[in-house]
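Lecture notes, continued. The same structure-token format from the folding unit now serves as the input rather than the output. Read the line below as a description of shape only.
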């Protein structure tokens, strides 16, 4: 692959992480699940991609998220939160807050509109990103960082591009049976290695018997576990909702026969590729989200499906067009950048259709103007 070379310090950190993963594989009889490998590559203390100190987001990082594109994204989420929680205090909890841009834009837009936000809690696993968030949000007294999810929560939970970074297990169909694809060593190099599946894994793939020979895909038990955690949190509180925005599909599209290589993707310096063994700790590893599985996990946890729709439909239904009608947006110097940003956020050729919004609810009603756009029948 023709990718930008890392610095000497970054390369040394990656090699140290490789040695740590190699020791883990040897300590587990020469094989670990891909989920275990992905967890170490992303979250190993001080060395994993999200645990290290490298810049990850924006033009100087490896990829760009919706909040980095425009403050309109955070402002729209703020409007949606107020409308969803009307009549109660606006309490927000964000998982994986990135650079803090979404929180800053949301809180600033609400302050400019004279709408109070009672509290904004952030659960962030990355010490480096937490430090950046604290700097970006120093002017907002409502913000509080948590070391772990609260036992109970009432309000709106936000998880923007969180599910895609959770470790996944790989399954492959070989000789008419399903195997779990893990990671082993060939001398000191990481290689894929297949083993018999544990009972119950294949059941997570709809119509697995009908998929073709050689079919490789992901299953998402850790993502489902996260959804169950949200159900417990909201159930122990006075009600609320969880909004997840990420790239993915309903199961009927996720497990299409022609999607035979799965959805695993790596991001390094704004280059996308499919080699998860390239410079562990220096690149992001992600998979698309099976939103049908997330909806089922939510219902199993006692939550209802408030809605499922494209990011474009959500942003438009949640009031993005109204933000473009504000006096500041009419300034010619502001209009073109805003127009370009809206194009990226809502165009089917950009983020508008690939990214989806799933709202799971507990004792709250979805506003009628956005409920009318619901496509949860596709799940």
């Amino acid at each position: 692959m023709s990718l930008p070379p890392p610095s000497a310090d970054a390369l040394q950190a990656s090699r140290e992480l490789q040695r740590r993963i190699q020791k883990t594989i040897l300590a587990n009889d020469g094989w670990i699940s891909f989920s275990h490998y992905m967890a170490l590559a992303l979250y190993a203390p001080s060395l994993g991609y999200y645990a290290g100190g490298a810049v990850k987001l924006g033009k100087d990082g490896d990829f760009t998220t919706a909040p980095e594109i425009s403050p309109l994204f955070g402002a729209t989420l703020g409007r949606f939160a107020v409308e969803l929680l009307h009549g109660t205090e606006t309490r927000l909890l964000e998982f994986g807050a990135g650079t803090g841009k979404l929180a800053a834009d949301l809180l600033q837009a609400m302050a400019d509109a004279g709408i109070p936000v009672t509290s904004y809690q952030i659960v962030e696993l990355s010490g480096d990103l937490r430090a950046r968030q604290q700097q970006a949000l120093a002017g907002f007294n409502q913000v509080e960082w948590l070391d772990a999810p609260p036992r109970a929560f009432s309000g709106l939970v936000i998880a923007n591009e969180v599910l895609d970074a959770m470790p996944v297990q790989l399954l492959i169909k070989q000789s008419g049976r399903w195997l779990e694809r893990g990671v082993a060593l060939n001398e000191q190099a990481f290689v894929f290695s297949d083993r018999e599946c544990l009972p119950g894994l294949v059941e997570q793939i709809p119509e697995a018997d009908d998929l073709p020979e050689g079919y490789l895909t992901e299953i998402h038990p850790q993502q489902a576990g996260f959804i169950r955690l949200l159900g417990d949190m909201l159930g122990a509180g006075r009600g609320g909702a969880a909004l997840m925005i990420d790239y993915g599909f309903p199961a009927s599209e996720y497990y299409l026969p022609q999607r035979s290589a799965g959805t695993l993707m790596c991001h390094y310096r704004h280059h996308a590729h499919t080699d998860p063994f390239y410079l562990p700790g220096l690149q992001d590893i992600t998979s698309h989200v099976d939103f049908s599985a997330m909806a089922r996990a939510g219902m199993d946890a006692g939550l209802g499906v408030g809605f499922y729709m494209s990011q474009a439909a959500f942003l438009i239904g949640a009031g993005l067009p109204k933000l473009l009608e504000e006096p500041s947006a009419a300034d010619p110097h502001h209009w073109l950048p805003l127009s370009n940003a809206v194009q990226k956020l809502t165009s089917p050729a950009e983020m508008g259709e690939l990214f989806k919004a799933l709202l799971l609810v507990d004792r709250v009603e979805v506003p009628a103007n956005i409920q009318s756009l619901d496509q949860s029948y596709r799940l």
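Point for the exam: The longest strand covers residues 177-186.
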